[in-house]
């Protein structure tokens, strides 16, 4: 009988960094996982920007479709599509499903004890069961507004404990939360950037709570903290690559290692959960990262955000209905009509610094704009912005602030794909991420006709150990 599957979606972790940290003795659980796995290095569906983005690649993983076929280009676009995906296919075959925070995945409806938590950048889909709504709002706020120092993070975290105590909050996470909050406030032994890993731990507590309660046949668990650390702090970790030896004493020198070690502890907990429930663990990253070594970017790209984008839009006569922060320097702004969206885009195009357009706006004809701050230079303290529809200007930093990171990691098409079958075997061939969905269906015993229309091929025949409950018991 097929084993239940947990697909661990550790976004953008890097095969070479994992091997480096394992060799240093820093990742005991990654080491144990690898040493009992069929190990592949996967290849993203699209090898280069602008399509080598996680929200595109994960959508390809879940649907088994290449970007050229599904066309999902932006984060949250997946919610409006009607492509079949792994959860729907399995549910149609009577299997219990669970999705905790997978990126750009649309709801699949409540049935047979299913669990759905949207990713943190999605505010347009409701989780189920409905009791997850407060949890989702908290995580979304922490992820979307992590750079906004006006957010009352400490108070929000304390209010949130009430939900967590009845939904799996572990003593380990309580200790980590206390250490983080008091370390920031009192001893300075913790920095705000470390909160991202704390969110991963809270996500796992909730995942474990619902997983043990519902015992799904297939579940996904998505976390993103280390991807963020790599984008922000690769230069701090390997300054020599960027021609800057002096940064070797940076307090964030070990930020990426910190992220991997936090994920290592999560991996240990997930391995224990799999042993208790008989689940097969599959670890995937969809894509990875590499240092951003463009000669024009040795110092990293700067990123800016509005202090209060809603207030600014009102000040230039733009009427909006809602605003969602998305990634780093981006927003999604909703309007009552497409005409209002077009007018807003025209006005925003006239916000300039030294003759350069500050805001890039894209109208998708669905009464919304995707906005991004297009300036990535180091802007001097005395810089001034020319405002639209007036001869006035304002200090640049009255409206915008610089995010306290510069991106020194960029995307790479290689990815982690490990099947914990109980025996180590490293495969030299690099499968496509489009092979993941046919493999999952095969491992769950779904007739191959369900994936006959997909371009990918199942990797199940390549695995060194047949993946069934009987072989799992024998391996144990």
In short:
Helix content is 36%, strand content 19%.
Q: Your description of this structure?
A:
The protein is of the alpha/beta class and 476 residues long. It folds into two domains: 5-294 and 409-475, 3-Layer(aba) Sandwich (Alkaline Phosphatase, subunit A), CATH 3.40.720; 301-407, no CATH class. 36% of the residues lie in helices and 19% in strands. It has 16 helices and 20 strands. The strands form six sheets. The chain has an eight-stranded mixed β-sheet, with helices on both faces. The chain has a four-stranded antiparallel β-sheet with strand order 9-10-14-13, with helices on one face. A two-stranded antiparallel ribbon has the order 7-18. The longest helix is centred in the middle third of the chain and has 23 residues, at 255-277. The two termini are 16 Å apart. Mean pLDDT is 88; it is low at 146-152.
